[in-house]
Design a protein that fits this description.
- With 126 residues, the chain is mostly helical.
- The protein has one domain.
- It is built from four helices and no strands.
- The N and C termini lie close together (8 Å).
């Protein structure tokens, strides 16, 4: 079960990575991210999108390591700790998306963040 949850997590986070890349390249999808303040992101927020992509890679490695699919860090205790840090981060993300001023962000990103959290919890508790 943990393996399937990890793969599901990676699929969803890869989709988010593509979305962030589109934002960084200037796609007018800003209403779904970063508070939804503008359709096309500012330079500062575009840099944030690029940073988010790097974080998504790290998150995927953490989940895959914890599920036993990839020896990313070579340390089971570190993976165990990191998965719980990631879970806490996603709890925070669900909350921030839920209170966004952007209705589009609330409607799309809140359930997506909740799904990512659920998948991480399945892996963490396995």
């Amino acid at each position: 079960m943990a393996e399937l949850a990890a793969i599901g997590f990676c699929i969803l986070i890869a989709g988010l990575g593509v979305f962030q890349a589109m934002l960084a390249l200037g796609a007018p999808l800003g209403r779904f991210a970063w508070g939804g303040q503008s359709a096309v992101l500012s330079t500062r927020l575009r840099v944030g999108s690029v940073i988010a992509i790097g974080l998504y890679v790290l998150f995927s490695l953490i989940v895959l390591e914890r599920a036993g699919l990839v020896p990313a860090f070579g340390s089971a205790p570190m993976a165990h700790c990191a998965i719980w840090v990631l879970a806490a981060y996603l709890v925070f993300g669900v909350g921030l998306n839920a209170i966004s001023r952007s209705k589009s962000e609330r409607m799309v990103m809140t359930p997506l963040a909740a799904a990512l959290l659920a998948l991480v919890l399945i892996v963490a508790l396995a």
